[in-house]
Amino acid sequence: MVVYNDIRHLVEAGHDVFLLSVSNGHAPDPAPMKAICRTEYCYVAKPQRWRQVLRNVGDPLPYSVARYVHERLADRAIAVARQNWIDVVLIEDVAMASYGPVLRAACGLPFLIRCHNIDTAMFGRFVAEERRTALRLLGRWQLRKMRAYEASMFRTADAVSVMSEEDAAEARRLFPNVDLRVVGAGTDLNRYRPPEGPREPNVMAHVGTLSAFTKREAMVWFAREVLPRVRQSRPDVSLELVGEVPKDVFRQYPGVQVIGRVEDDVPYLHRGRVFVAPQFVGSGVRLKLLNAMATANAIVCTPLASEGLALQDGEHALICNDAERMSDAIISILGDARLAMRLGHGARRLAEQRYGWKAVVAGLERALQEVAGGVPELRRRVNSPRISPRSANCGY
Questions:
Q1: How far apart are CA 359 and CA 352, in angstroms?
Q2: How many other CB atoms are there within 10 angstroms of residue 253's CB atom?
Q3: 261 in Cβ contact with 244 (< 8 Å)
Q4: Among 45, 46, 48, 98, which Cα is nearest to 74's?
Q5: Non-local CB neighbours of 360 within 8 Å, separated by 6+ positions
Q6: What is the pTM of this model?
Q7: Residue 349's CB: how many other CB atoms inside 10 A?
């Protein structure tokens, strides 16, 4: 959603955008994006997860980065840059950052990394929270790789943007002297609007992918620790999980309905009286919360889930970190339509004031223009040999 809205609004602002992307999961149809900008997908079949982990044993790159590094995409990026008058490279997410040094060496192009998370901080939180020895050791191994990789990429980039002031503070703590800009995320205020009709009084909703292990574990905690407390007070309450959700994981929990992937998430954001967002590991900004705010949901979430957003407890959402307080908060909203409406309207007002995509991307546009300042003179000087994205300025 971040990448799509960045591109759409940069094009609407008059910029010529060329999108190059790796697809590991399936061979996508480029037609929808081609309607917006010039688009090419580099499809690489994804091997089984255990094969990916084994391949990563001798690889200095973190597992979450290595699967996006492909020589074919690097070659195509160089060809596009040489055939077109490109001013600046926008790297969406640090996992793609190794292409930046390749394009700078071959074509003299500056690059800005738009970090969707501070991955070193995210791995660190996972290691601190995880109690299973094997997963904790795996996390520490990947944490060491990620810290070295992120430090190298931040040091190499012409500019780095992060999603929130909290992420900026964390990045400066981990990587002193890094030059950071804060360019957050937004929501489509026209698409995501409050419902016209009433909400279901006994329905809770979570709209968002749970395929990532850390997100899935947080929702398992909710289904195991919070939902039974709520159902003791209100036996007819159900929790709808909308998005990419592993059905087998939640089948054992009474009251959980796995809706799965849908074409349009808006009806589900309009349906429930409470939107729940438990999260204990991660960084960046939760886009699902922005969409829930825009659709005037009464939100109950953990402090980490609200990190990076200006949500105030009791004004825009109810924010709590333990099962008892979270269940009490949900029960109070389910039983009080006026409280649900007050929280929902407060969240919508905040979204209107601060989180429209057009205003967010305007900040990204300014950062790109600053980075692109001296490109033409630099481009005429550079015609360096091809370097590999796997080793380019990665400090290994």
A1: 10
A2: 16
A3: yes
A4: 98
A5: 5, 183, 184, 185, 186
A6: 0.79
A7: 14
Distance CA 176, CA 187 (A): 31
Q: Rounded distance, CA 80 to CA 390, Å?
A: 20
Extract the runs of DSSP E, i.e. beta strands, from 36-170.
38-43, 89-92, 111-114, 159-162
The residue with tokens 């939640």 is 250
Q: Positive or negative, the Cα torsion across 188, 189, 191, 195? A: positive
- Residue in the structure block whose two tokens are 């997100």: 215
pLDDT at 125 over 90: no
3-state secondary structure of 373: coil
3-state SS assignment for residue 296:
coil
Mean pLDDT comparison of 45-59, 330-344, 379-393, highest-scoring range: 330-344
> What is the rounded CA–CA span in Å between residue 294 and residue 207?
13
pLDDT digits (tens, 9 = 90+) for 213-225: 778 889 999 999 9
**For 60-78, what is each residue's pLDDT tens digit?**
898 888 888 889 899 999 9
Token pair 């079949």 is found at 45
Query: Are the C-beta atoms of residues 226 and 278 closer than 8 Å to each other?
Result: yes
The residues, any chain, with a CB within 8 Å of residue 251's CB and separated by 6 or more, are: 258
The domains found in the chain, sorted by start residue, are: 2-186+357-381 (3.40.50.2000), 200-354 (3.40.50.2000)
Amino acid at 13: A
The number of beta carbons lying within 10 Å of the beta carbon of residue 175 is 19
Please report, as a single letter, which amino acid is at residue 112.
L
pLDDT tens for 171-213 read 999 999 888 999 999 999 999 999 999 999 999 999 988 877 7
Distance CA 192, CA 267 (A): 10
CA angle 179, 184, 187 (to 5 degrees): 165
Residue 233 has pLDDT above 80, yes or no: yes
| Percent of the chain's residues with pLDDT above 90 | 63
Helix (H) or strand (E) holding 137: helix 133-156
Sign of CA pseudo-dihedral 61, 63, 68, 72: positive
